[in-house]
Design goal:
The protein has helices at 10-28, 40-44, 50-68, 73-89, 95-102, 105-121, 125-129, 135-142; strands at residues 31-33, 36-38. It is mainly α.
């Protein structure tokens, strides 16, 4: 039997989880330095306007993933707060650009989405493989599949 059209299957949810994982890596963790990472978000912040444009596009993408995943309203609000803070900070000369290297808003928004997906649909195989490497992976190791 097929699920109703408005319900998300576990496979669809796990595909969205993987897309969020890719966004985290590209945006905030291309190069990892201990607990910090630098990705396209931090690099583009050094270029006037480009940082804001990239941050807004990446933020819009992660928010779209949240809507597609039918994340809870609370999760969507948290994600929006992280994305807004990240995007606005890149507009502030020097201080905001420096903050963009340390405040990983896209990563935090994607983590919130991944936790929501794990809570409602169980953890994808990738989350179990990376257990202990991040907050969404820790949540995955204790999540029960749906």
């Amino acid at each position: 039997m097929f699920p109703p059209m408005d319900e998300l299957t576990q496979d669809q949810a796990h595909d969205i989880w993987r897309q969020a994982e890719s966004l985290k890596r590209i945006s905030d963790r291309l190069i990892g330095i201990g607990p910090f990472g630098v990705g396209l978000d931090g690099v583009t912040a050094l270029i006037p306007v480009a940082g804001t444009v990239y941050s807004a596009l990446a933020g819009g993408w992660v928010m779209w993933l949240g809507v597609k995943a039918k994340a809870s309203p609370l999760t969507l609000v948290r994600m929006l707060a992280y994305v807004a803070a990240d995007t606005i900070s890149s507009d502030i000369p020097i201080i905001g650009q420096a903050a963009d290297f340390f405040f990983q808003g896209h990563l935090m928004a994607a983590n919130a989405l991944q936790k929501d997906i794990i809570k409602r649909h169980g953890a994808p195989v990738e989350a179990m493989r990376h257990a202990g490497r991040g907050s969404s992976a820790r949540a995955a190791s204790s999540a029960q599949p749906a």
